[in-house]
Amino acid sequence: MARQSRGIKLQLSISVIFTMLIVPALGCVIAFSYYANLHNLQTVSQRFVNTARDDAITMSHDLLDPVIGVVRVVAGMAEADPAFFRTEESRNVLHAALISAPQIDAFYVSFEDGYHRVVTRIDADRRRSDPRIPANAKWHSSYIDAYKDGGHRQRHRTFFEHWGKAIGGYSIDTDIDVRTLPHYVAAKRSGRTAITDPIINPDTGFPVLPIGHPIQHAGSFIGVVSAQITLDVLSKFLDSHKASPNSITVIADAAGNMIAHPVMAEGVRRVEGKIELTKLSELREPQIVAAVAQRAVRHSDRFTFKAGPDRREYVALFGQFRAGFDKPWQVVVVAPTDDFVGGLKETNRRLVWIMLALAGAEAVLIYFMSRRIARPIETVTAAIERTRRLSFDAAIAVKSQVTEIAQLQRAVGLLANALHSFSVFVPVGLVRELVDSGRPLVPHVEPRFMTIFFSDVENFSTIAEQMTPQELSEQTSLYFETVTSAVAEEHGTIDKFIGDSVMAFWGAPSTVDDHVFRACVAALKASRRMARRSEQWAAAGRKPMTTRIGIHCANVVVGNVGSPERLSYTVMGDGVNIASRLEGLNKQFGTAICISEDVYDRVAGRVVARRLERLAVKGRTADLLVYELLDVVGVAIPDLDPARSFPPVAGAAPPSTTGDG
């Protein structure tokens, strides 16, 4: 056995490093005084506050400038060919403009005769505002008729799941007149790009910023190209780019109305049932309200003040947007001074400056030690977490030179391998439940309503006799892989393999929503995938394998059965026997998937099924009505070909989706 290389002891490593660094570090740290550090921290705090202000202004420009550019490009197209934007083909151009920037919520072209064409995104808020919008709609295009004699106009709406794939729409009378909106009026009056004050989007309840650019054709104004920007991108930026941990940065207009707040919902308020923009003086943050009041008194854009019942000290900075910006917006940054110098002040009150120097030296030592130790410990922590989640796709990449940590890494690797091997033989859901609960396995069963699934290969014994062992092993493995993957995709649990049969169930160890329907989908996936594999095998001159499946749902018992020394997690009961017999009935009917009446009753209307016969089943007093499962209805499921054709079954009724046929 190879001798393991000797590592460095953790305790020795810490002792040596502290000995080597603490003595020279003391001489350096003592040279600095409290006041020098305080001055440096104040300088840093001013730089951070300035950076937060400048970043907010830059981000606002970055938010608007590309949108303005797109609006002007589309306006140029409209000037060259105004009639094009009265055609359905033009909505592709508007959609391309809409998706050019994530902050654009709507893009539209409006003309002086009242004609209006728009493309918007569809989100949950818009769906709530109009129940006629399809649940899976993601895009919307509509146009409003031009004014004619009598003024009767309609809005014609079309909804898309994927752009170009219309899934619904309707037309409705409307009195919307985009020509009266502020940005349309401003663009028409000024003859250039106009950015008006934010307005509340009635569909979402959040502010949006409208931008408009005039369309000039043959020397005359004929309309406006517009974009509507959501400010959530700006809010998220303010939340993630702070001057300090407890600082807050907001953007407001000249009148003090909120443009962007780190918490988007704080930028609006409801007054007498109407949503409107919040003012700076009405914010919930008392430090912002106090800073606005102090600025009016001090007439300064940068100052320090105290606010709140504890008289906490803050630094405030008001910054105006650059002169080239179209709107008179301002940035307000308010940060507690303790974020920058609080720790130093507290330490100075309790310790003499020499002890502060020693604490600083210790902090430096701890920092360098953490760099040496943190990475391997982090890898061990991540490996333990992956093992707890039963994720075994990555090994520990960084090997520590510290003996104790290296041993821990090896132990974690062995534990992961053991759990991985265990999960191959035991349902993964059960293994995860055991890991999370920490309880040992003991014999125990419980009653549950479950769906049981059986599959096998038709004439397997005959096929096996006609194949070489290598071919039989390869094809059987692919058969098991096909069935188990279909079951896993629908959150089922593989119970066991019995010769060429696969037994699976839904409803344990974890509950599964709609498990009866999921079992039907899994059966269709497995059957159709195996049909394709059999076609490939037949084309290659090999024996095809036809899969037969039976599904039943019933109240059964499930759990750990066996002895304390050896357990098996399985399901038992009459429902298991029925599922097995349903699988066998495929041979009698010449079908692929047989389901029971209990299964059909729970998925009726969602599947295509063919009623077969009512049969007497051995061991049961009641007859069993059997259906053949053919397809699902109205659901896009991979592997389920929408081009359906159903072979006739002797003596069977035609397919039905609504009843027994």
Question: What labels would you give this structure?
Answer:
Beta-Lactamase; alpha+beta; single chain; disordered C terminus; eight-stranded mixed sheet
In short:
With 661 residues, the protein is α+β, with helices and mostly antiparallel strands. The protein has four domains: 1-28 and 351-425, no CATH class; 61-231, Beta-Lactamase; 233-343, Beta-Lactamase, CATH 3.30.450; 437-632, Alpha-Beta Plaits.
Structure overview:
- The chain has 661 residues and is an alpha+beta fold.
- The chain folds into four domains: 1-28 and 351-425, no CATH class; 61-231, PAS domain (Beta-Lactamase, 2-Layer Sandwich), CATH 3.30.450.20; 233-343, Beta-Lactamase (2-Layer Sandwich); 437-632, Nucleotide cyclase, GGDEF domain (Alpha-Beta Plaits), CATH 3.30.70.
- It is 41% helix and 27% strand.
- It has helices spanning 10-29, 34-80, 90-98, 124-129, 182-190, 232-240, 286-298, 338-350, 353-388, 403-425, 428-437, 460-465, 469-489, 515-539, 574-589, 597-603, and strands spanning 104-111, 116-121, 139-144, 154-162, 165-173, 194-195, 199-200, 207-217, 220-230, 248-252, 258-260, 268-271, 274-277, 302-307, 312-320, 330-336, 444-457, 493-498, 501-506, 547-563, 566-572, 593-596, 607-616, 623-632.
- Strands 1, 2, 3, 4, 5, 6, 7, 8 and 9 form a nine-stranded antiparallel sheet that branches.
- Strand 8 and strand 9 form a beta hairpin.
